[in-house]
Amino acid sequence: MKFFVNDACIGCGLCASTCPEVFKMTDTGLAKAVDAEVAPDAEASALEAQSGCPVAAIETV
Ligand code: SF4
User: Fold this and answer.
1) Residue range 38-50: average pLDDT?
2) What is the reported pLDDT for 1?
3) Whole-number pLDDT of residue 2
4) Which of 53, 48, 47 is nearest to 31 (CA)?
5) Which CATH architecture does the domain made up of 3-60 adopt?
6) SS3 17
7) How is the chain split into domains, by residue range?
8) What are the two backbone dihedrals, phi and then psi, of residue 17, each rounded to the nearest 5 degrees?
9) From ligand 1's centre to the CA of 1, what distance in Å?
10) Best of 7, 22, 45, 58 to mutate for ligand 1, by most ligand atoms within 8 A of CB?
11) What pLDDT is recorded for position 52?
């Protein structure tokens, strides 16, 4: 499973604190997901970050 952050991100930082293995805050103040398959042991927290995003900016492929 791969994750990405769409244009709806408002930079609240929640995903990066919930799952720092996958989500990082960038210089623009918005979040970015790692550009790689998420390891199975990080998937649960990444999905938790996705459901916690207040603007539904996290998508999976
Ligand atoms: S939780 Fe959503 S709005 Fe907040 S930084 Fe992450 S992607 Fe952006």
Assistant:
1) 97
2) 94
3) 97
4) 53
5) 2-Layer Sandwich (3.30)
6) helix
7) 3-60
8) -85, -30
9) 18
10) 58
11) 98
